[in-house]
Write a sequence for this structure.
């Protein structure tokens, strides 16, 4: 279904970003329009998701009114919709949190425009239906993240950012090369069109995929794997998230890796996990999921700094998502999607809690913390709920994600399911470590912000508000898992059987018998077989 | 004040108008052939940079009496408005409106595309960004 307004998810942060540069010295006005932009994105995405849930609609807008495989399509379906909603929510929480926990000098250094540009890139990468445009949106997102990583410009921040920038530059180069190869092999970069061609060529009696397709798939796996921090490409992550301001770290841990995982979940079931390389790619996914899950959690257990534990946990959780992709059944992909959105919310909430904990202890070293339970009940409750959601205790959100993935995995890779359960136990261990050292044990740290018993200072109000917002969302994902899963199952179904996606984006009925399509073609010349048009144009171009 | 050769200064007087003219040509030509606002902006900003190299920063300020930031925002604003406007008419983002109008005293009808406003915006952004960067960098060098 055509809906041109879905572009607002991209335009609103962009325009807000431009406006907040204009309002550079008016910090209140900047905050106001920034919050407004995130609230708008959240509300609008939830509104559209209700429609998606009711009718299974796929909203499409063709940029510049060019028909599908030629122009850029913007697609809002269950998969991208849920992710846009979750990332807008996370951005809102982190943004509000930053009002009280980010140093005013750092805020003045273009933080407000940058966070909008980051959302611009993130939303565009979720919504775009074009492989090259995906590259562009990655670049927009990375550009903003480079600048945000170095906000404050401490020495160690710059060292880590250098590593991050270098790795991402390499990944981007590989991405462009791979995209070029895809265009050379398949003649299109529109994901729906690619999915259509792949389905036609791999169908019984089809001519098969061109040679080299597997190589391109592996290149794409490398690129998205690096962004998503899967084994063995995750080494950049812990240090990078360790150094930057905590509100930004929360946002990055929630969103950036998930964009990489999203790209895997979108392109591999649709396009790249087909043909001769299918079984090999599936094996790579499974092995990578195993190592990512288990090594990640081992790293978390062995650390004693809250930020490091949380950052390394991101990796371990990405493992579950890759596990979902490795199974590649509709149900497992739905579980992967649910796990992604719940992880975005919960992980950011934990990071935001960590920011407030640091304010009490003056450090994030667990050995120097303690007694937070007595000093701050609210924070303790918020942290506990978020931590248990991450672990996956039954009524909370993590449980439903893990349940679906592990249950589905039992029939296909039982050993991965066992590993997943063991990882869950170790996750519990590391979360309890933070809990007991930080909250339960007698106090040790310096009392930087509040002495025991004193009322909470006003300056942290928006910090608590941001965390509460995200924890409430996590609770909703736990207790209201059913409506979310309705959309997720639909999305999983559409990924493994992309007919609905293809006909929505390319705007013709793929199931219709050929003569009806011909009639439709006469009716509207633009929607004939798009490949024929491309071929004609090529013949004209080459003398 | 930098010392520059008289040859450079004399030739820049010739180069500057020519390259600005060429930039205009590029930006208008782009709608049917390769070219466009981006490349035109680069050509124009190279002209400004050479001018700055030979006559110094103050002369450039006299020639271009607005802050580069203003150029960037005017350009971004023009691009944003022309790309969002189609949404209000129920068309997708960035849709270009093409048509012809008759100008009095000219016999041929004038062909226009609304994308030209977008492209001019791009031109201004490119000029603003590159002139701004060159100005800042050369300030630090001197």
């Amino acid at each position: 279904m055509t809906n041109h307004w879905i572009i607002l998810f991209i335009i609103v942060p962009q325009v807000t970003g431009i406006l907040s540069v204009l309002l550079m010295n008016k910090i209140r006005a900047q905050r106001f329009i920034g919050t407004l932009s995130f609230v708008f994105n959240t509300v609008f995405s939830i509104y559209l998701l209700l429609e998606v849930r009711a009718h299974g609609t796929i909203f499409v807008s063709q940029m510049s009114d060019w028909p599908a495989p030629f122009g850029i399509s913007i697609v809002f379906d269950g998969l991208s919709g849920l992710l846009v909603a979750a990332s807008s929510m996370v951005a809102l929480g982190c943004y509000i949190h930053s009002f009280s926990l980010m140093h005013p000098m750092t805020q003045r250094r273009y933080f407000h425009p940058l966070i909008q540009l980051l959302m611009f890139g993130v939303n565009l990468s979720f919504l775009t239906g074009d492989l090259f445009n995906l590259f562009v949106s990655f670049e927009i997102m990375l550009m903003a993240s480079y600048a945000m990583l170095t906000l404050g410009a401490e020495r160690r921040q710059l060292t880590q950012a250098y590593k991050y920038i270098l790795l991402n530059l390499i990944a981007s180069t590989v991405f462009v090369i791979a995209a070029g190869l895809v265009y050379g092999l398949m003649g299109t970069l529109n994901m729906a069109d690619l999915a259509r061609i792949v389905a036609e060529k791999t169908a019984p009696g089809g001519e098969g995929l061109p040679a080299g397709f597997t190589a391109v798939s592996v290149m794409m796996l490398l690129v998205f794997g690096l962004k998503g921090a899967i084994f063995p490409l995750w080494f950049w992550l812990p240090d990078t998230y360790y150094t930057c301001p905590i509100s930004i770290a929360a946002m990055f841990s929630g969103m950036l890796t998930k964009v990489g995982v999203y790209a895997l979940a979108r392109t591999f079931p649709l396009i790249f996990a087909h043909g001769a390389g299918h079984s090999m790619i599936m094996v790579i996914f499974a092995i990578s999921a195993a190592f990512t899950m288990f090594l990640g959690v081992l790293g978390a257990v062995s650390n004693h700094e809250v930020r490091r534990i949380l950052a390394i946990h991101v990796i371990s959780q990405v493992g579950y998502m890759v596990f979902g992709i490795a199974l590649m059944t509709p149900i497992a992909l739905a579980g992967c999607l649910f796990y992604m959105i719940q992880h975005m919310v919960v992980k950011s909430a934990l990071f935001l809690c960590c920011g407030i904990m640091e304010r009490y202890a003056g450090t994030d070293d667990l050995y120097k913390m303690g007694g937070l339970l007595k000093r701050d009940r609210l924070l303790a409750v918020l942290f506990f709920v978020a931590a248990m959601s991450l672990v996956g205790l039954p009524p909370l959100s993590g449980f439903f994600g893990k349940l679906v993935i592990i249950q589905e995995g039992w029939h296909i890779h039982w050993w991965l399911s066992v590993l997943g359960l063991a990882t869950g136990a170790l996750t519990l261990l590391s979360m309890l470590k933070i809990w007991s050292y930080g909250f339960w044990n007698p106090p040790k740290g310096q009392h930087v912000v509040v002495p025991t018993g004193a009322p909470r200072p006003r300056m942290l109000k928006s910090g608590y508000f941001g965390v509460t917002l995200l924890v409430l969302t996590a609770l909703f994902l736990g207790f209201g898992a059913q409506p979310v899963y309705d959309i997720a199952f639909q999305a999983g179904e559409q990924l493994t059987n992309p007919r609905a996606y293809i006909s929505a984006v390319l705007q013709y009925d793929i199931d219709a018998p050929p003569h009806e399509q011909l009639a439709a073609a006469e009716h509207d010349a633009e929607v004939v077989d798009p490949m024929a048009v491309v071929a004609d144009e090529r013949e004209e171009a080459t003398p | 004040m930098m010392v520059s050769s008289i040859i450079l200064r004399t030739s820049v007087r010739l180069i500057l108008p020519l390259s600005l003219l060429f930039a205009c040509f590029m930006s208008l030509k782009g709608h049917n052939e390769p070219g466009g606002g981006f490349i035109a902006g680069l050509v124009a900003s190279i002209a400004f940079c050479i001018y700055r190299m030979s006559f110094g920063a103050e002369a450039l300020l006299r020639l271009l009496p607005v802050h580069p930031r203003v150029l960037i925002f005017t350009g971004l604003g023009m691009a944003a408005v022309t790309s969002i406007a189609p949404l209000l008419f129920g068309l997708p983002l960035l849709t270009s409106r093409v048509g012809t109008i008759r100008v009095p005293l000219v016999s041929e009808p004038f062909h226009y595309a609304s994308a030209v406003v977008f492209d001019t915006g791009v031109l201004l952004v490119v000029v603003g960004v590159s002139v701004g960067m060159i100005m800042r960098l050369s300030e630090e060098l001197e």
